[in-house]
Amino acid sequence: MKEMPFPEVYGTVTVGERGQIVVPAKIRKIFKIIPGDKLIAFAKKDGPIAFIPASNFGKFLDLAAEHLEKIKKEL
After folding, report:
1. Which sign, positive or negative, has the C-alpha torsion 26, 8, 52, 16?
2. What is the pLDDT along the chain (75 residues), one digit of tens a residue?
């Protein structure tokens, strides 16, 4: 099975009093995130938190379906 690479670290964020965070500029530039864009948040109870631009969600689902098919074939 192919080993998953570690994600790159882009810095830290601080949670404000209203629960808001600022997405680091480097990530906004890479993913072309602009003010007003919607992000979908994913998290495991005691695991990582991830954000996916809503505009890329269909692509994310397609990739997830591909990986699930590969796993099914291996079983």
Report:
1. negative
2. 556 577 788 888 899 999 999 999 998 998 899 999 999 998 988 888 888 888 888 888 888 899 899 898 888
Query: Which 8-state DSSP code applies to residue 54?
Result: G
Model confidence, pTM: 0.62
Distance CA 72, CA 70 (A): 5
Q: Rounded CA gap, 49 and 19, in Å?
A: 14
User: Rounded to whole angstroms, how far apart are CA atoms 37 and 30?
Assistant: 14
Separation in Å, CA 46 to CA 49, 51, 54:
9, 16, 24
* Per-residue DSSP letter, 1: -
